[in-house]
Amino acid sequence: MPAIELKGVVKRFGEITAVDGLDLDVPRGICLGLLGPNGAGKSTTMRLLTGQAIADEGSLRVLGHELPAEAKEARAEMGVVPQLDNLDVDVSVQDNLAVFARLYRVKDVRAAVDRGLELARLSDRRTDSVEQLSGGMRRRLLLARGLMHEPDLMLLDEPTVGLDPQIRTQLWSLVDLLRSQGVTILMSTHYIEEAQRLADEVAVMTHGKIIARGRPDELIAKHAGRETAEVYAPPARLAEVRAVAEAQGLTVRPAGPAIAIVGSERASDGAIPPEAIRRAASLEDVFVLLTGEEAE
Ligand SMILES: Nc1ncnc2c1ncn2[C@@H]1O[C@H](COP(=O)(O)OP(=O)(O)O)[C@@H](O)[C@H]1O
Ligand SMILES: [Mg+2]
After folding, report:
1. Which residue from 8, 205, 263, 290 puts its CA 20 to 30 A from 34's CA?
2. pLDDT per residue over 230-262, tens digit each?
3. For the packed helices 135-146 and 165-180, what is the interaxial angle rounded to 10 degrees?
C-alpha cells in the first residue's frame, strides 16, 4: 500500500480551480519532490492531505486512511511542516515541542522534546522564547516539532522558502537524515536545486495537475535530452542563433541574458555556434520547458 494515493482530486476556491484532477501515488520510503511554480496548487494539495481542506471531487488515501472521513487517524500518523511558520511565540522553544508531543499523545514527552532539540540543534536555546531565534533556527524547530511523534510520513511544504542559502543547506541535511531513516517524505518546492538534491522522484505540478513524474535523471533524459548549449551574445546575434536552432526542430528558451538550446546533441552542423557553452542537461531545463516559467 502506497503512503499516499490521490485519484482525480479537485479543489476549487470559487472561480479558481487550485487542484484540477490530481493523480498522485507516493510509495513508502521515498522522498517525492512536488516541484511547481507559485500558484501551482502545492500547498492546497498538502492541506487536502492533512484534512485542513476538503476536496470537491476525487479520492484520497493517506497511510491507508480514507480522507476526509479518517483524517484524524491519518493526522495522528503523519508529521507536517507548514509553509508558514506557525510556532507559538508566547512560549519557550522546548514548550513548543512539548505542546505538540502531548497533542500527539507521545508517551515520554521529555525524551521526545530532548530528541527534537538535539535534531534541531537547539538544546542550548531550549528556554529561549521563539522570538529570540533566527529564521533558520525557527525553521529547524518547525521541522523538529513535526517529528515529535516519530511519524512514518512527513509533509514538508516549501521547507526552505525565503531562507539564506547557508540555512537552506542545513535544512537539506536534516531532510536527508530523515530520508536515510526510511521516513516517507512528500516535499513541495519551487526550487529546482532542492528537488534535485533531495528527491528520489520528482512530480512536476502546474495549474493543479502533475504533468511529468520520474527520477530526475529520467525526466532529464525524456524531456531535455543529454546536453544543453547556452549562448551569450547581443540580442541580434541571439535571434539569429535561435532561428537556426528552431529551424532544426530544437527547443530554445531564454536563460537570463542568454539563450539555452535544449537537446543540443541532436543539432546538425552550424546550429550550435562555437562560442556556445555546452553543459549537461538539467532538471531546470525540464522545469522551464514543461511549465514555461523561468527557474529560481
Ligand atoms: N484559501 C484560498 N482561497 C482562495 N484561493 C486560494 C486559496 N488557497 C489557494 N488559493 C489559490 O489556489 C491556487 C493554488 O494555490 P496554492 O495551493 O497555494 O499554490 P502553491 O502552493 O503551489 O503556490 C492559487 O491561485 C491560489 O491563489
Ligand atoms: Mg505554497
Report:
1. 263
2. 999 999 999 999 999 999 999 999 888 899 999
3. 20
Which amino acid residue places its CA nearest to atom 13 of ligand 1?
18
Range 4-220 classified under CATH 3.40.30.10? no
CA of 179 to the centre of ligand 1 (A): 28
Q: Does the beta carbon of 18 sit less than 6 angstroms from any atom of ligand 1?
A: yes
Q: Where are the alpha helices (DSSP H) in 120-228?
A: 135-146, 165-180, 192-198, 216-219
Q: Which CATH architecture has domain 226-280?
A: 2-Layer Sandwich (3.30)
Q: Could you count the other beta carbons within 10 Å of the beta carbon of residue 202?
A: 29
For residue 84, the ligand closest to its alpha carbon is: 2
- Listing from the earlier edge strand, what are the strands of the sheet with 227-231? 251-255, 258-262, 227-231, 277-280
CA angle 258, 264, 267 (to 5 degrees): 120
**Cα(173)–Cα(226) distance, rounded to whole angstroms?**
29
For residues 117 and 126, is the Cβ–Cβ distance under 8 A? yes
Tell me the per-residue pLDDT of 176-200, one tens digit each, with 9 for 90 and over: 999 999 999 999 999 999 999 999 9
Q: How far, in Å, from the CA of 142 to the mean position of ligand 1?
A: 22
Domain residue ranges of the chain, discontinuous segments joined by +:
4-220, 226-280
Domains 4-220 and 226-280 share a fold: no
Q: How crowded is residue 279: how many other Cβ atoms within 10 Å of its Cβ?
A: 13
How far away, in angstroms, is 49 Cα from ligand 2 center? 14
